[in-house]
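Consider this record:
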Amino acid sequence: MSENLIINFTPTGMIPTKDMTPHVPISVSEIVENVLEVSEIGITMVHLHARDEVDGSPTYKKELYGQIIEGIRKYQPELVICVSLSGRNFSKLEQRADPLFLEGSLKPDMGSLTLSSLNFNTTASVNSPEMIQDLASIMLEKGIVPELEVFDIGMINYAKYLQRKELLQPPFYFNLLLGNIACAQANLLNTGVMLNDLPENSYWSLAGIGNEQLKMNSIAIAMGGGVRIGIEDNIWYDRNRTKLATNADLIKRVHTIADANERGIMSPAEFRNKMKFQSKKNQYGRSSN
């Protein structure tokens, strides 16, 4: 029997704007309402990006992340929450690490950790070795689990290096993102090589950038892995780009594909158990070091 499907929901991202699609949630209330809506359909975890309340630009500020987390946990306290620590717009450690200093009921379970620098279409995401190790060290100290973001196979090797340095502890969770212009392309060979190289005790999800989202989600479901899905990665529902997607549409389609493959959806509680998160009520992430 195939393992239940991890659905990692990515509602907002850093790129989509209201001018691009009216369906992207930007404000705190929009993000909270959207996450709660798709939680009723069925997801395992959410990968959050906060946006400035005035101009909608990406922000690192823990106060806004805290408001989003508070709104979600009021109704879905078990949902696994990951905060973005992206280096695309912010270059200083104190900026990128800011959401990691939320505590108590606002503490995130996970924080994204991109394992090398890379180029997107028009911008770079700069992740120096020092930055990656500093973020990993803070997360280890605080009991926040890295969501390991991989765009190329060398990034998996760097995760193993961090494990040897005792900055990462199993079990691991990897997002394998394929189809970015300057990274591994979305095909079966790259997928297989990357999966074959993952360290032991790893859970994984596949993501496809833009038009590759549906393909990579479908491959992941057929292969027994998880999916990363949401407007962050693709604002369109169809390959011909005639219909803008809603996040609910995308989640419902993943459920349909999962049903066809006879796979259930992994509950947040099951994922918490697999990732060795704390089990007591109102405690999040792993125990602090």
Summary: The chain has nine helices and twelve strands.
